[in-house]
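FORM 12-B: Structure-to-Sequence Request
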């Protein structure tokens, strides 16, 4: 879950000195895969108190078994081939190398749409929705709902990282993505994002309001949740759905935000463990897949395939960005300013079963024109419930084309 406190939104002017867009293909050296397996085999496992399940973190037996599968059964080359079936590119913006998928729809009238992931996600989140969004005709949908898709790895994440300097908060990322869409020649487009993408996408709408037709978010927090305590009088007006989301938000603050406190204050300290131990990196990520998928009481494999989850974790490991991606929390909490200007861009919200967004608060800070509440799906909606995700994105942008 992304930063639940006020994110900073400082923006910079993109550097256009090197605007070349270069084709890119993922080609991981075999030596890196061999190193991953050797490190997993030599993991120094900790002790644990028996019988506590997930109450104090990832259970030892679960992680041992998952790490064993990662080392001996998981097929990175198959995942690499799946990713490489989509056109990928690199370009430099504001001193950072930006990696992105660019999937053009076969429909001439398709609407350009930039999809932004969060933490601990990646472009892998969107693999199951690329086809239905870009080519609805071939997936039982209406060709009038087609999108040209731009799917970047955020700076400091995956093949867009690590960056050389500090300051990559949501506003700066948004400014870079506005420049990316300009370079691609898109003068009218939409933005969608979850988790930190639900910070970046509204910031794109603010930074490029003359060109962004609408913003759609899921896994939304700041700007869509109460700021501070909810009074008893206000609580008495809550619906059952709102009460459940407020209770989920309180549980997060009380018992689920330890990772956030570390990454928002001392990301460099946790970086050594994340960058040196694949088992440590896996535990750091899989805990969030367990707690944020639906139902959170089940193992994450019930919501997302084990191989898909490991592809996401493997990208963090192979690119060495488990460490650098943590800095987005620090940047969000420590930049000198943030943009509180109310957005005017039409905004749509998909609130899934494990989300915490509450409509009455979203309407105070956003131009909400579309809101959907779902009784299934969680934080990684495009992976968990691609049918619901695609349907809601189509429905929202259908009115804005």
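FORM 12-B RESPONSE
SEQUENCE OUT:
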């Amino acid at each position: 879950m992304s930063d639940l406190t006020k994110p900073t939104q400082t923006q910079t002017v993109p550097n256009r000195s090197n605007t070349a867009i270069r084709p890119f293909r993922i080609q991981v050296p075999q030596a890196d895969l061999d190193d991953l397996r050797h490190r997993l085999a030599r993991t120094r496992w900790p002790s644990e108190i028996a019988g506590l399940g997930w109450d104090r973190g990832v259970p030892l037996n679960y992680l041992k078994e998952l790490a064993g599968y990662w080392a001996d059964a998981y097929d990175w080359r198959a995942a690499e081939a799946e990713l490489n079936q989509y056109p990928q590119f690199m370009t430099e913006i504001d001193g950072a190398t930006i990696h992105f998928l660019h999937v053009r729809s076969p429909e001439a009238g398709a609407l350009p749409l930039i999809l932004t992931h969060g933490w601990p996600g990646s472009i892998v989140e969107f693999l199951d929705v690329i086809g239905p969004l870009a080519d609805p005709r071939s997936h039982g949908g209406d060709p009038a709902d087609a999108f040209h898709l731009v799917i970047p790895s955020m700076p400091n994440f995956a093949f867009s990282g690590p960056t050389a300097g500090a300051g990559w908060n949501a506003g700066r990322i948004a400014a870079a993505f506005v420049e990316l869409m300009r370079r691609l020649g898109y003068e009218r487009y939409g933005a969608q994002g979850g988790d930190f993408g639900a910070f970046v996408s509204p910031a794109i709408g603010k930074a490029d309001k003359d060109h962004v037709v609408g913003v759609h978010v899921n896994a939304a927090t700041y700007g869509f949740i109460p700021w501070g305590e909810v009074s008893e009088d206000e609580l008495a007006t809550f619906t059952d759905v709102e009460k459940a989301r407020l209770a989920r938000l309180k549980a997060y603050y009380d018992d689920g935000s330890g990772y956030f406190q570390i990454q928002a204050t001392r990301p460099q300290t946790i970086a050594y463990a994340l960058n040196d131990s694949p088992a440590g990196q896996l535990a750091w990520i899989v805990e969030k897949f367990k707690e944020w998928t639906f139902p959170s009481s089940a193992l994450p494999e019930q919501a997302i395939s084990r191989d898909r989850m490991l592809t996401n974790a493997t990208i963090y490991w192979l690119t060495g960005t488990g460490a650098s991606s943590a800095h987005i929390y620090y940047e969000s909490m420590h930049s000198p300013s943030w943009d509180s200007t109310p957005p005017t861009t039409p905004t749509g919200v998909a609130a899934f079963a494990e989300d915490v967004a509450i409509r009455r608060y979203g309407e105070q800070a956003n131009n909400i024109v579309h809101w959907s509440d779902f009784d299934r799906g969680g934080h990684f909606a495009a992976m968990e419930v691609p049918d619901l995700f695609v349907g809601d994105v189509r429905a929202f942008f259908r009115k804005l084309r």
